[in-house]
Amino acid sequence: MAMTDLTWWQAALLGLIQGLTEWIPVSSSGHLQLGRALLGLEASTWYDLLLHVGTLLVVVLVYRRRILGLTVAAFGQASPERNFAWGLLLASVPIALAGYFGKDLVEAAFTDTAFVAAALLVTAYMLWTTKGLDGRAPLGANNAWTVGLWQALALLPGVSRSGATIAGGLHAGLDRQTAADFAFLLAIPALTGATLFKALDVGDEALAIDGPMALGILISLVTGYMTLQWLRGVVARRGVHAFAPYCLVVGVLALLHAGR
Q1: How far, in Å, CA of 223 to CA of 20, rounded?
Q2: Are 56 and 192 within 8 A, CB to CB?
């Protein structure tokens, strides 16, 4: 069954998975791939592109005031907000390079359920290593670059982008709130780039949005907005290590399923 042949309940389920797991550090790409495998669905570049656009709209809406402030600060006098703004640009370089030169490897990984499962175990370990971390280092070029290197790992399905970038920030000495905000805002250039790459690969797919697809996108938008608002507070208070056991369990179950 092709992705464009989604039933209403399949579209609703995939939209819910996308909305919940894009921001919660458990890997939306990994969960969508596992969901498709369980439902017997093929991937659709067009549908993935629409989901990326929806996710991008969510983070812009949630951080709209901060984005405006960072845009002004980027061209103003030296300040922490100026460092933050230019840090976002610097941190976006590694994933852009990795995406360009490693495109074939990444695409192959999306077809391998066992790989996705193993990557979820990596995410679990990554999240667990952040337990107790809550630094005080100011955001500068060095730790922004470090976060960018961690984010590049998230090109692989099963490695959470939000989890990798938050973990990278915490290991680089940032406090939880700064690490979370930097990670979520870093999604804007990352998702913009991913959307452009996917747009080039759409090819001859029918560029239409049917009823089930529209439902899935709407569900992903609403749940994504609510999830991001909730998660910002959770990360600031408790960190992200609490999500590690979930990734561990799902990864093990997915490995067992892949080995059947």
Answers
A1: 6
A2: yes
Residue with tokens 């790409």: 29
Domain ranges in the chain? 3-258
The four Cα atoms 181, 182, 187, 193 give a dihedral, to 10 degrees, of 160
Residues 6+ apart with CB under 8 A from 222: 19
CA–CA dist 48, 26 (Å, integer): 18
Question: How many whole angstroms separate alpha carbon 27 and alpha carbon 49?
Answer: 17
Query: What gap in Å lies between CA 36 and CA 43, rounded to an integer?
Result: 7
Using an 8 Å Cβ cutoff, are 6 and 14 in contact? yes
pTM: 0.90
- pLDDT of the chain along its 260 residues, tens only? 344 577 888 888 888 998 888 899 998 888 888 888 888 887 677 777 787 788 889 999 999 999 999 999 999 999 999 999 999 999 999 999 998 898 888 888 877 889 989 999 999 999 999 999 999 999 999 999 999 999 999 999 899 999 999 999 999 999 999 999 999 999 999 888 877 877 776 665 556 778 888 888 899 999 999 999 999 999 989 999 999 999 999 999 989 887 76
